[in-house]
Amino acid sequence: MIEHNEDAIAKKIIRAPFAGFVVKEHTQLGEWVDKGGPIVTIAD
Hints:
Elements: H1 2-10, E1 21-25, E2 40-43
Antiparallel strand pairs: 1-2
């Protein structure tokens, strides 16, 4: 059961295709986002 939950959480992690820093958050914790919508702005 715990392993299943950890797998489900891991599938929801969003990773950038490059290293950088989050400079702006466009969403709040728990907020729904649209497909393709901005979540954060990242700068290198």
